[in-house]
Amino acid sequence: MAKKSSIEKNKHRRELVAKYAEKRAALLATANDESRSMEERFEARLKLAELPRNSSKTRIVNRCGVTGRPRAYYRKLGMSRIALRELGSQGLIPGLVKSSW
């Protein structure tokens, strides 16, 4: 099980990303628009830099929904390989059979 603080920190990041998504998208569109003046684009970049760092989508860490583990995460299932194996061994995931030889 991951530290509770790490899981909560990641939840907070997800909330910030959702909160600032529109503002960030608008500033990025302005900053990348070639038809605007250089001063406008630079000002948009400065405003973008003033936003909280954790409001950037790239700061979110994919974590296992069961254990909170950040590594070996399957996006399609939303859990780590270890949680998948344990739930599969218990027969809680339909269609999954743990192979043994």
TrEMBL record:
Any one GO molecular function term: rRNA binding
Cross-referenced SUPFAM superfamilies: Glucocorticoid receptor-like (DNA-binding domain)
Keywords: Ribonucleoprotein, Ribosomal protein, RNA-binding, rRNA-binding
Pfam families assigned: Ribosomal_S14 (PF00253)
GO BP annotations listed: translation
The keyword Membrane is assigned to this record: no
GO CC annotations, alphabetized: cytoplasm; small ribosomal subunit
Protein's UniProt keywords contain Transmembrane helix: no
Record PANTHER family: 30S RIBOSOMAL PROTEIN S14, SMALL RIBOSOMAL SUBUNIT PROTEIN US14M
Subunit note: Part of the 30S ribosomal subunit. Contacts proteins S3 and S10.
Described purpose of this protein according to its UniProt entry: Binds 16S rRNA, required for the assembly of 30S particles and may also be responsible for determining the conformation of the 16S rRNA at the A site.
Membership in a protein family: Belongs to the universal ribosomal protein uS14 family.
Matches recorded under HAMAP family: Ribosomal_uS14_1
Protein name per its UniProtKB record: Small ribosomal subunit protein uS14
Organism this protein belongs to: Salinarimonas soli
Encoding gene, per UniProt annotation: rpsN
